[in-house]
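Dear support,

Our group has been running a series of protein-ligand predictions, and this particular one with coenzyme A is the one our PI (initials K.S.) wants archived with full inputs and outputs. We had some confusion internally about which version of the output was final, so please treat the block below as the authoritative record. The input we submitted was:
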Amino acid sequence: MSTSTNERPLSGIASIGLHLPPLAMGVEELARLRGEDPDKFTIGLGCKAMSLCPPDYDVVELSVVAAERALSRWGGDRDRIGLLAVGTESALDMSRPLSAWVAERLGLQGSIRSYEVKHACYGGTLAVRQATEWRMAEANQGRAALVIAADVALYEQGDPGEATQGAGAVAMVIDEPEVALIEPHSFPWSEPVFDFWRPVGEAFPRVDGKLSLECYKRAAERCFRALVGQQDPEQVFADFTAFCFHVPFPKMVLKAVQRVGTFFRWDPERIATFFAEKVSPTMAWNRLSGNSYTASLWISVANALQGLQLGERVAAFSYGSGFGAELLTLKAGPKAISGAWEKDVVTDLANRQFVDAAAYCALRA
Ligand code: COA
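Confirmed final output from the archive:
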């Protein structure tokens, strides 16, 4: 087992697998259906398309395909998996964890800690942190963790959030940091609020959109202030190749970047350049798949890590309504440069079928 200079085991992402479902709809088609100006969705929210699941295609299917891809890329023996954690807000049951459905399909049982993590869109990040800390604390006894962030994001038809729908899954084996080291120190911020929630028994979330946006921006400012601390902000920001955010819709990320930049007294031009160069490119896959709640940040991180040189750093801001946020920092490992997981997204995007408004209405009926 490799160790850091202070002899603590290094922990991080050993492999990544992604999966997007086989259907999608362009947001301009949704705008026509709802009688909205398409520019509201494309320019106002920054969205392009939303991934959709066919009937009988659910969060378990998304999770299993992503996990199989991550496991085959990792190449280790499945007996070495000692922890299975699934972050989701698309749970199938109030008691039985989603991980049980996933474990059944993957043939994982026995001496494994298997559980579901719920904290809105932050659940996947919490699962990643727990797996990382489990390994760093040497509670893993030499074994690896399989972490999955997976969701199907649907709003009530006609809801203002409908254009931000999506679905997807990211699976990561947490083991030797061959793709990326997850740095031990992270920067959390939480406040108890009702900005987005789904009462027990209700099919769709309730959202206070304005409050949600304000909380997201406040959390981002607090987390980045903690990252910078007493250091020179210019030096801290320059040390990162890319900045990934949870992406409910790309415009929300832009607004958070504006808030952070304003705190550090950047002028509007500096903020725009920073966003264009270090943030916007990481959302290329998010724009095509829509919001996938817990998976959303990790789709952006997977995009940012591909092709990085050893040691290049990426910052990852996670936000989950309710609310909890955390800023993680990652350092590229030797396998980042191959970007092998890009193939998953390219394949899924090439194979997916776009539905029109009539087919969408039939899907939602
Ligand atoms: N052309 C270009 N832009 C337009 C437009 C048009 N014709 N019409 C509206 N817009 C812009 C608005 O100006 C606004 O941009 P701004 O905020 O920069 O001013 C944006 O489009 C959205 O318009 P708005 O009227 O605020 O939308 P809405 O009230 O219908 O709300 C959401 C839509 C998506 C913002 C809201 O439903 C929401 O917040 N949803 C969920 C948020 C979420 O996911 N939270 C939980 C996790 S973080």
